[in-house]
Design goal:
Layout (H helix, E strand, L loop, with lengths): L2 H6 L20 H57 L2 H11 L5 E7 L5 E5 L11 H5 L5 E9 L5 E9 L1 H53 L13 H74 L5 H26 L8 E4 H15 L4 E7 L5 E4 L1 H18 L5 E11 L2 H6 L7 E9 L6 H4 L19 H11 L3 E6 L5 E10 L19 E5 L3 H13 L3 E5 L2 H10 L6 E5 L7 H11 L5 E5 L17 E4 L4 H13 L10
Parallel strand pairs: 6-8, 12-13, 12-14, 14-15, 15-16
Antiparallel strand pairs: 1-2, 1-4, 3-4, 5-7, 7-11, 8-9, 9-11, 10-11
Length: 653
């Protein structure tokens, strides 16, 4: 039993689950109305049927009694007068005249002793041999009236007149039949009236109850009560229907809110996945970049001694290429948590697309055609040029891979679009403004509906093992989001795939391209190198020696601080790692500046959450370079730092 049923208090049958009302309220409203009208009407009819015929009979008997008494008095007066005059013939005639009425049963004359003197008895069997007491006793068939008369000698005589009740009984029976007919008519009318009234009252209520039962059983508020009158029941039906409409409206609003909630939960879950990947990346990036730094650094030093065109140089170039790819992979992972650091500048997307199309046409198979369209008025976007290049190239690479076997058409289109409020609702991070739209479409095998919702998840891929990392589209999604844009995908099995990237337009002018220059070299300046990774210390020292610097290196930060404190003017610059046991790079820099505030310090780190490009200068660093770095990166950073006044030191990449 549900809580609702327990609260209402309706017992539920265990067999079929139907509601059974208690015995005391089994009658329906219609039955109660009919019974409340017909039962009183029936009682009234029974009363009328019994009371009025009986009263009518009593009235008839009373009237007959008066009539019979008058007849007896008149007869006794005539008989007395005739006896006193001795006219016995008149006595007989007077008695005969009294019996002329058809209702008279008999007329008799008795003396004082009760002896019958004369009589008129048409049936000849009523008073023959009967005494006065016998003929005047109660009889249900006739009425008797007695009147005294004075005869000769002052003797009193009694005249008895009997009158039949059969006619009164007959009239009473006819009246009762008429009353019965009237009662039946009245009962019929009362029952019909009760049924009519009950229908007018109970049918709307029954419809209301039936509608409520339908809503309860189906759980859907799509039923309405038909209004059959304009009285209180009609008003009730109207208000009930209005209530149903209000519930439907709230249900629709609830479904809309629930849909938006699920969508937001899905986006929040996706965001948490990205954050988890970023946290994981931050944990491994430092050590991984240290390893890459060693590999790429020594590879660069080895290439300097390898003859041009030799097999050794070719092999070293392959190692450098693989290391660079590993460096880009770490960069992609760091971008999920935005740990990689970006410098956003105004970028011309059109120029980047032209370069990518040129490179693709020279590398993709001939069965893949490439076309690019732009309306000629494409604006600029705020982005990291390398990152937006990677976004477009990643989408194009996926499109080419989807058409490797069957061939097809790769289209890269650029246009401007003004985002409206309705469109922005589909992409919550967009606002009402102008956007640069990058469209990359192919005619490949497409993406099935079972995968379309997961393609931006990190490490999700439909490619075979060894053919993809699952980070490409996840990186694209993260990068586009970081630039304040949005990405959408439309695809179907066998019908190709289309990606739309929306990036906000900017009015800022593009920065001039930097001019390449040779690696800066030193002139004997003394550099202290501190890193807990001994191979990195050796590699960095070798690079600095080749660049013309004198180097003193340490793999323990406390030993480096002791050596610096012993002779602080010996050194012109300090290069230190951030994550080290005992003293971190920031702590070591603070101690060094306590001894000699003017000495410049360069921070070299694979990854750090405590020291970033934004707060490096606040921690006392003059320069910030990320691992893995090249000899040119290291030489340029040192040359820039030594040529700049310490008080004007800034953080650059």
């Amino acid at each position: 039993m549900t809580k609702r049923e327990q609260r209402v208090g309706l017992p539920i049958s265990e067999s079929d689950g139907t509601t059974k009302l208690p015995q005391r309220i089994r009658f329906s409203i219609r039955s109660k109305l009919i019974l409340s009208i017909t039962i009183p009407a029936m009682l009234i009819v029974l009363f009328v049927y019994d009371y009025y015929p009986r009263k009518h009979l009593q009235f008839a008997i009373s009237s007959l009694m008066e009539k019979v008494q008058v007849m007896a008095d008149m007869t006794s007066s005539g008989v007395g007068h005739a006896l006193r005059t001795g006219d016995f013939e008149t006595v007989s005639r007077t008695i005969s005249l009294a019996s002329a009425d058809s209702g008279v049963v008999f007329v008799a004359l008795f003396d004082e002793s009760g002896e019958l003197l004369a009589s008129f008895d048409p049936s000849n069997n009523i008073i023959a041999g009967s005494s006065l007491e016998e003929i005047t006793k109660d009889n249900s068939n006739y009425l008797t009236a007695i009147s005294k008369a004075k005869g000769t000698g002052g003797h009193e005589l009694e005249v008895v007149v009997a009158y039949s009740l059969l006619e009164a009984f007959s009239r009473s029976a006819k009246f009762r039949e008429f009353a019965l007919l009237l009662c039946l008519v009245a009962l019929t009318i009362s029952f019909g009236l009760a049924y009519f009234l009950s229908s007018r009252i109970s049918r709307p209520i029954k419809n209301l109850v039936s509608t409520i039962q339908d809503i309860t059983s189906s759980g859907k508020f799509d039923s309405h009560v038909q209004r059959t009158s304009s009285d209180e029941l009609g008003t009730l039906a109207n208000h009930f229907n209005e209530m149903i409409e209000e519930i439907n409206l709230r249900e629709r609003e609830k479904e809309s809110v629930e849909s938006k909630r699920l969508e937001l939960e899905s986006r929040l879950q996706q965001s948490r996945k990205m954050e988890a990947v970023g946290t994981l990346a931050g944990g491994i990036a430092h050590d991984f970049n240290n390893l890459l730094g060693i590999i790429l650094g020594y590879n660069e030093l080895a290439m300097l001694s390898a003859p041009e065109g030799s097999a050794q140089r070719t092999q070293l170039a392959s190692i450098h290429s693989a290391g660079s790819r590993a460096k880009d992979l770490v960069r992609q992972i760091l971008d999920f948590g935005r740990h990689g650091g970006q410098k956003l500048t105004p970028v011309s997307v059109e120029n980047i697309v032209k370069g990518i199309v040129k490179d693709l046409r020279s590398t993709v198979e001939s069965n893949v055609n490439i076309e690019s369209n732009a309306d000629g008025s494409i604006g600029r976007v705020m982005s990291d040029q390398t990152e937006i290049h990677r976004v477009i190239l990643n989408l194009c690479s996926n499109a080419v891979q989807a058409m490797e076997e069957s061939g097809g058409m790769l289209s890269i289109d650029l246009d401007m679009i003004e985002v409206t409020a309705n469109f922005a609702n589909k992409h919550l991070i967009l606002t009402d403004r102008m956007y640069v739209r990058i469209t990359v479409s192919d005619t490949g095998h497409g993406i099935g509906p079972e995968h379309i919702q997961r393609i931006f998840e990190p490490f999700f891929t439909t490619k075979d093992v060894g053919q993809g990392t699952g980070l490409g589209l996840a990186t694209v999604h993260s990068s586009v989001k970081s630039m304040g844009g949005a990405i959408s995908v439309h695809s179907a099995k066998g019908k190709g795939t289309t990606f739309h990237v929306y990036l906000p337009e900017t009015d800022a002018p593009c920065e001039p391209e930097s001019v390449a220059h040779d690696t800066s070299k030193g002139s004997g300046q003394h550099v202290m190198v501190v890193d807990d990774e001994e191979l990195l210390v050796a590699m960095c020292s070798a690079m600095l020696v080749q660049l013309g610097y004198e180097v003193t290196s340490f793999s323990v930060s406390t030993e480096a601080l002791t050596a610096f404190a012993a002779n602080p003017n010996k050194y012109d610059l300090v290069v230190t790692d951030q994550r080290m046991p005992a003293l971190t790079g920031a702590e070591l820099t603070a101690e060094i500046h306590n001894i000699r505030p003017d000495i410049p310090v360069i921070l070299v780190t694979g990854f750090s959450e405590t020291v970033s490009r934004q707060n490096a200068s606040n921690c006392g660093f003059s320069e910030y370079i990320a691992k893995p770095y090249s000899k040119k990166d290291l030489g340029d950073a040192i040359s820039f730092t030594l040529s700049s006044p310490s008080e004007d030191s800034t953080v650059v990449s």
